[in-house]
Automatic annotation (TrEMBL):
Classification lineage: Bacteria, Pseudomonadati, Pseudomonadota, Alphaproteobacteria, Rhodospirillales
Keyword annotations from UniProtKB, A to Z: Hydrolase, Metal-binding, Metalloprotease, Protease, Zinc
Protease as UniProt keyword: yes
Organism: Magnetospirillum sulfuroxidans
TM helices/strands, residue ranges: none
Protein name from the UniProt record: M67 family metallopeptidase
Residues covered by the MPN domain: 1-122
Record has Metal-binding as a keyword: yes
């Protein structure tokens, strides 16, 4: 995600997060980059729906327990907090939103969020990375 965010700068990067688990305990198994259909528009992203359809078909056909657990995108102002546009576009509250803050082409922060439907705002989701073996 970080590599994609830095490579897309000054546009926003976006993609899907695949994994398994429930509630707060989910494990990411892979990340699928997607074309940003709004790459020419500053500070906006729209994930190519063809990518999502292909991933959903692949997951269904594979018989795996993996599923789409979230989306990622980057912010080109260095912040990794959800914007007002992010809040307005959060149609799937069960999905995690990971945001990579990029400043001058360098990722400086990555934060996880999930929409709290009752409050109409995002709440933080803790991220843990596995220890290197």
């Amino acid at each position: 995600m970080v590599d994609a965010a830095e490579a897309a700068f000054p546009a926003e990067a976006c993609g899907l997060i695949i994994g398994r688990g429930k509630g707060q305990l989910i494990r990411v198994t892979r990340v699928v980059p997607a074309e940003n259909l709004l790459a020419e528009t500053p500070d906006r992203f729209e994930l190519d729906p063809a990518t999502r359809i292909a991933v959903e078909k692949d997951l269904r056909d594979s018989g795996t327990k993996d599923r789409i657990i979230g989306h990622y995108h980057s912010h080109t102002d260095g912040t990794a907090e959800p914007s007002a546009t992010d809040r307005a576009m959060a149609f799937e509250p069960e999905m995690a939103w990971l945001i990579v803050g990029v400043l001058d082409g360098q990722a400086i922060q990555t934060l996880g969020h999930r929409m709290d439907e009752k409050r109409g705002n995002f709440r933080p989701v803790p991220l843990r990375t596995p220890k290197a073996k």
